[in-house]
């Protein structure tokens, strides 16, 4: 039973992200590097190994430090204060994550210049849009991993969920929340980088606001409908938006679907 | 089994010291060797075996003279691929270490300390604990420095047999004794009933095949698997016998020492590499993890490594004549380190005249096939010391972080970044790697 829950939650949370990784990122080593780590030392054309997850980690580290200090400095028995501190910590963490996303954008810009300078035909092997996507996936995977790993480790052990009166759906909803967060980070990456590239500040603000909204909605838990439903709606919006920004359109989509259908069967799809 | 465990503390002493210099040397050698190999690969298409031990150092001289820009460009292009090629074994090693730490309680149980860290950390005050760990780290680092210098001296004065013997005894101990203990502890954890005859059969086969694969010829994947396994075993030993603060301090100081030893003109590692270069010797393939097939002719050259291990054994004997078991341990420790550059020497120890000739002949052979060879097929070599070092880091983080997986994950990612840094460096380590390590330590303390 516990093993089934473990695998189920793992696949729910990370299945889509890993398939994205496998199909779009795994084959290109440069993309893997951009995904995994973050080069803190980012000057010069050698800084192509800018790594998203590392940047997210650094932001998490800083925000957790701040929260830790705040908690230690306050009265542990004051419930509303602790909750308030937690909300403050979460908001601060969101802002810091977005700040690091911006820093990462700056780093990748420099990296592209370096790659262009060193390439044979004058164009970079990877475009900023691709980097935005990979960076988003990296951020998402890292944040998802940090959310879920301890949960998954506990899911293996002996125990019953919610035996003390909490929600029994805790593992499941956490897995779904993680999945939507990974997707959201991917789309936010695309939106954010596009906003930075084209100087559209309102896109950046929209990303930050969306992130704050999603994180804030988790405070509705254990009323899971209050956090999951808005998050999925926001994810759909962000997906459509990112698709449009990446050059997609309804015609492209139709052509893609119809082509797939016509390749599968000789009869014209209707 | 329990009696064996009690003996371990004594055995570890030599190993601990031996390992660290090995790590750094191998890493240094590997980095510079990799650079040279990269360069030589690009320059000379008729050298397919650049990643193998057969690469003569004379290529390197020519390579260095060539165009730097071409170098950089190719480094950048194939650097990404090489980084990925090395992510996999490093990840595997760390996965093995973390999985063992989380499941087998033996490696997190405190059964005493090594003789190299004589000061206990079970003190009354934090100040005393800090002082003790600083002293422990100082002792350990000085032993490492002494051993490194000793090995460099041995190498300079061509005491190859000493090193060979040392190396062989090291890997013997590692492959047989440590894996025996590991197997026993795993059986205990999962409550598997086992008889001695089966265990003897298993360990014998495991050890002998390991010796053959590592020091002689064997399928590449098997050799890689064995190198990962012995690195993991070594890392587990360190995690068990180093107290916490000492371990973190040692890791930090080792990073700095690494930098110093490689960058300083009089640094022992640098001298070693330069001596190897002068003598046109290559690094040891057996203790370097190679991601591509060692080129055929060079396989035969690996015999001298055995001699090196033998010589290493006797070298250690001089240092610790007191305890026979200590000597054996030292060798086992050396396995991670000295084998590398010792193999380098081994190529010399064999028929010295024929080696460069055979290598030249070998290089001359596939000239036509080489021109079409994709430089991307070039492999990367990596010192086992790095495997061990970073597995210790991740293992310690997961062992001490009271079951928190986030710390382990964070450490793992930081280490991958460090790898990325290292492999992006052209000639020297950058302070960025130190930053990555500092970050690691901070993450661990934070999770702690």
UniProtKB/TrEMBL annotation, chain A:
| Lipid bilayer topology | Multi-pass membrane protein
Q: Mind listing the GO molecular function terms for this protein?
A: protein-macromolecule adaptor activity
Q: Which UniProt keywords apply?
A: Membrane, Notch signaling pathway, Transmembrane, Transmembrane helix
Please indicate which superkingdom the organism of origin belongs to: Eukaryota
Transmembrane stretches, by residue range? 29-46, 53-73, 85-104, 131-149, 169-194, 201-219, 225-245
Q: Please give an example of a GO cellular component term from this record.
A: endoplasmic reticulum
Does the record's keyword annotation contain Transmembrane? yes
According to its UniProt record, where is this protein mainly located?
Answer: membrane
> Where does this protein reside within or beyond the cell?
Membrane
Q: Name one GO biological process term.
A: Notch signaling pathway
Q: How does it assemble?
A: Component of the gamma-secretase complex.
- What's the family? Belongs to the APH-1 family.
**PANTHER family, alphabetized:** GAMMA-SECRETASE SUBUNIT APH-1 (PTHR12889)
Function of the protein: Potential subunit of the gamma-secretase complex, an endoprotease complex that catalyzes the intramembrane cleavage of integral proteins such as Notch receptors.
Official protein name in the record: Gamma-secretase subunit APH-1
- State the organism's lineage: Eukaryota, Metazoa, Chordata, Craniata, Vertebrata
UniProtKB/TrEMBL annotation, chain B:
> Which keywords annotate this record?
Apoptosis, Cell adhesion, Cell membrane, Cell projection, Endoplasmic reticulum, Golgi apparatus, Hydrolase, Membrane, Notch signaling pathway, Phosphoprotein, Protease, Synapse, Transmembrane, Transmembrane helix
What residue spans carry the Polar residues bias annotation? Answer: 12-30, 48-60, 312-327
Give the span(s) annotated as Disordered. Answer: 1-66, 306-378
Q: Which GO terms describe its biological process?
A: amyloid precursor protein catabolic process; apoptotic process; cell adhesion; intracellular signal transduction; Notch signaling pathway; protein processing
- Top-level taxonomic group: Eukaryota
- Transmembrane ranges? 83-101, 134-155, 162-184, 196-214, 226-242, 248-264
Membrane topology, record value: Multi-pass membrane protein
Q: Where is the composition biased (Basic and acidic residues)?
A: 31-46
Q: Does the keyword Chaperone apply?
A: no
Recorded hits in InterPro entries, A to Z, give: Pept_A22A_PS1, Peptidase_A22A, Preselin/SPP, Presenilin_C
Compartments (UniProt record): Cell membrane; Cell projection, Axon; Cytoplasmic granule; Endoplasmic reticulum membrane
Molecular function, one GO term:
aspartic endopeptidase activity, intramembrane cleaving
Q: Which GO terms describe its cellular component?
A: axon; endoplasmic reticulum membrane; Golgi membrane; plasma membrane; synapse
Note whether Hydrolase occurs among the keywords.
yes
In short, the EC number is 3.4.23.-
Function statement: Probable subunit of the gamma-secretase complex, an endoprotease complex that catalyzes the intramembrane cleavage of integral membrane proteins such as Notch receptors.
UniProt remark on domains: The PAL motif is required for normal active site conformation.
Subunit info here reads:
Homodimer.
The similarity annotation says: Belongs to the peptidase A22A family.
Q: List the protein's name.
A: Presenilin
């Amino acid at each position: 039973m516990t093993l089934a829950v473990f695998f189920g939650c793992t696949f729910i949370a990370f299945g889509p992200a890993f398939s994205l990784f496998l199909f779009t990122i795994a084959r290109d080593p440069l993309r893997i590097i951009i995904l995994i780590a973050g080069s803190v030392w980012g000057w010069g054309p050698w800084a192509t190994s800018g790594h998203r997850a590392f940047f997210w980690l650094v932001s998490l580290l800083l925000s957790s430090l701040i929260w830790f200090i705040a908690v230690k400095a306050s009265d542990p028995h004051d419930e509303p204060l602790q909750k308030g501190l937690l909300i403050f910590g979460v908001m601060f963490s969101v802002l810091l994550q977005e700040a690091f996303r911006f820093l990462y954008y700056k780093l990748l810009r420099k990296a592209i210049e370096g790659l262009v300078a060193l390439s044979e035909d004058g164009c970079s092997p990877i475009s900023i849009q691709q980097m935005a996507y990979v960076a988003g996936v990296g951020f998402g995977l890292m944040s998802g991993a940090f959310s879920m790993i301890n949960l998954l480790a506990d899911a293996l052990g002996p125990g019953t969920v919610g035996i003390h009166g909490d929600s029994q759906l805790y593992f499941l909803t956490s897995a779904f929340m993680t999945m939507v967060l990974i997707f959201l980070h991917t789309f936010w990456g695309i939106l954010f980088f596009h906003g930075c590239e084209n100087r559209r500040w309102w896109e950046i603000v929209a990303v930050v606001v969306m992130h704050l909204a999603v994180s804030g909605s988790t405070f509705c838990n254990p009323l899971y409908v209050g956090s999951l439903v808005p998050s999925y709606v926001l994810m759909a919006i962000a997906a459509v938006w990112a698709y449009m920004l990446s050059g997609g359109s309804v015609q492209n989509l139709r052509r893609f679907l119809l082509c797939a259908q016509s390749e599968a069967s000789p009869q014209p799809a209707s | 089994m329990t009696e064996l465990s009690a003996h371990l503390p004594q055995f570890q002493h030599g190993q601990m010291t031996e390992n660290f210099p090995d790590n750094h040397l191998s890493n240094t050698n590997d980095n510079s060797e990799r650079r040279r190999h990269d360069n030589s690969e690009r320059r000379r298409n008729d050298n397919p075996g650049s990643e193998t031990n057969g690469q003569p150092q004379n290529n390197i001289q020519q390579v260095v003279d060539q165009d730097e820009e071409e170098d950089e460009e190719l480094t950048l292009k194939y650097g990404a691929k090489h980084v990925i090629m090395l992510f996999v074994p490093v990840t595997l090693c760390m996965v093995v270490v973390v999985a063992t730490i989380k499941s087998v309680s033996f490696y997190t149980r405190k059964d005493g300390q090594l003789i190299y860290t004589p000061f206990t950390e079970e003190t009354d005050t934090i100040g005393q604990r800090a002082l003790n760990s600083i002293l422990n780290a100082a002792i350990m680092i000085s032993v490492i420095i002494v051993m490194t210098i000793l090995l460099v001296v041995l190498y300079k004065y061509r005491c190859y047999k000493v090193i060979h013997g040392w190396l062989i005894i090291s890997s013997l101990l590692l492959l047989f004794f440590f894996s025996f203990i590991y197997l026993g502890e795993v059986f205990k954890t999962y409550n598997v009933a086992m008889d001695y005859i089966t265990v003897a059969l298993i360990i014998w086969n495991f050890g002998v095949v390991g010796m053959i694969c590592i020091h002689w010829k064997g399928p590449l994947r098997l050799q890689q698997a064995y190198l990962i396994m012995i690195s993991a075993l070594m890392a587990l030993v360190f995690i068990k016998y180093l107290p916490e603060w000492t371990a973190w301090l040692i890791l930090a100081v080792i990073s700095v020492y690494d930098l110093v030893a490689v960058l300083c003109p009089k640094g022992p590692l640098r001298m070693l590499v330069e001596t190897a270069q002068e003598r046109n010797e290559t690094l040891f393939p057996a203790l370097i993890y190679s991601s591509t097939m060692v080129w055929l002719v060079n396989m035969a050259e690996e015999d001298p490594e055995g001699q090196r291990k033998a010589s290493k054994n006797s070298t250690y004997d001089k240092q610790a004549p007191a305890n026979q078991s200590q000597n054996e341990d030292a060798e086992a420790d050396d396995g991670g380190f000295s084998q590398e550059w010792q193999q380098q020497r081994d190529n010399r120890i064999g028929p010295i005249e024929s080696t460069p000739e055979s290598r030249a002949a070998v290089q001359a052979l596939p000239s036509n096939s080489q021109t079409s060879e994709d430089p991307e097929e070039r492999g990367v070599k990596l010192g086992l010391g790095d495997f061990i070092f970073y597995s210790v880091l991740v293992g310690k983080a997961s062992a001490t972080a009271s079951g928190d997986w986030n710390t382990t994950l964070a450490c793992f990612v930081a280490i991958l970044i460090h790898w990325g840094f290292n492999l992006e460096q052209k000639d020297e380590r950058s302070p960025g790697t130190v930053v990555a390590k500092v970050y690691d330590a901070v993450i661990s303390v934070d999770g702690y």
